[in-house]
Amino acid sequence: MKTWTPDASNHFEAWLGRVRLSVAGDPSLDPDDIAQDLRAHVHAELEAMPEPVTVGALERVLDSLGNPCQWSDAIKAPSELSSAWFQRNVTDVVTAWQQRLGGDWGLPVLLFVLTLIAIPTFGWIGAPLLLFAYFVARSHVTYAPQLVVGRKKWLVYAPLGLGAGVLAGLVLGFPLTFSGGYPNRFETMWILGSWWVLVGILAAREPKRVRAALKPFADTFDASHGRLLSLVGAAFLIAASVVLLSH
Prior knowledge:
The chain is mainly alpha-helical.
């Protein structure tokens, strides 16, 4: 390969950069492939030139190639490129999402958005939104499970998971909702332990009700899980009783 002067090399690389930029707006053209072909063509044209290749010799070859913007009818004016970019990156994307929302993506996305709104506004606004989203999502999973597949499943599961977590927390912490908290943590353990023993016994007797209430996250719940909750409650109860009786 012939040697080039530093100025010639820099001038050629800058020219190739302008070529890449000029064809970048046409998705049917690959700027790197075009630059590689041009590089090979220019080197072949300069093969008969004396060394080192100068800027003058290089420019004569480049001038013979003409204006890069005229090589393809697909190359567009800057205003047309901006319009094409907006069409491709904004209009087409919005249209695609409208088509999805108009199909079976509409409900999952709506439920997910309602859940996102309900989290930071939980109260008079967020609680009803979450309750509505939970009810609709539960109906969707129960009566149209064939539609809850792929990525849509996680959108529908968002309100279900949050609602199931709130429901489980309310049930397990039910005694504390009326007390405002106990001054002694061992009293809290004693109350919760007693409650969990009772809840565990009921859950072990009616595992189907637990599965139905926490669907689909408790589909594998059975009587053994209820008994395990009772054992945990009994452990809390015994530990708290020992400490309280020792004082």
